[in-house]
Amino acid sequence: GIQDMREVVISETTRQVIMRMVREVYFMNALEDAEVELILGALKLMGYNEGETIIKEGSEGNSFYIILEGDVRVVVGKKFLRSGKEVARLGPGDFFGETALVSNQPRNATVICDGTVRAVKLERSAFESLKSSNDNFSKAMDHIAEHRQLKTS
Known about the structure:
- The chain has five helices and seven strands.
- The chain has 153 residues and is α+β, with helices and mostly antiparallel strands.
- Strands 1, 2, 3, 4, 5, 6 and 7 form a seven-stranded antiparallel beta sheet that branches.
- The longest helix has 18 residues, at 135-152.
- The protein is globular and about 45 Å long.
């Protein structure tokens, strides 16, 4: 479908940038090089346009994102005719979407592009296999939901 149109090919330079960002995401910094390679193999690079919604509050969460370029707005309480409340703005190196993966709860916010955005996406399937094969990763993931809960409230 249309989704697939957004996927972008990853160049070597971009690959280096992604490696660095993955390492800096706090729950992935305990990973070995080989593990980061595994994650890289599972990541998809996506391109979005101004005003596009990447994830929608209340929907099922099946992927996690790290922003490479551009900025997004995180909005809660956005409904058909209500604009919702902006709770955060994220930029390159920031990530979102992990709470739904960890907690199996629906998305807790809507994320909208503020201009052109390039982000890498990690699907639930890849995420689950990393967790089952990797103790470090799994432990770190268990702390995330709580961590995010504290940060946003």
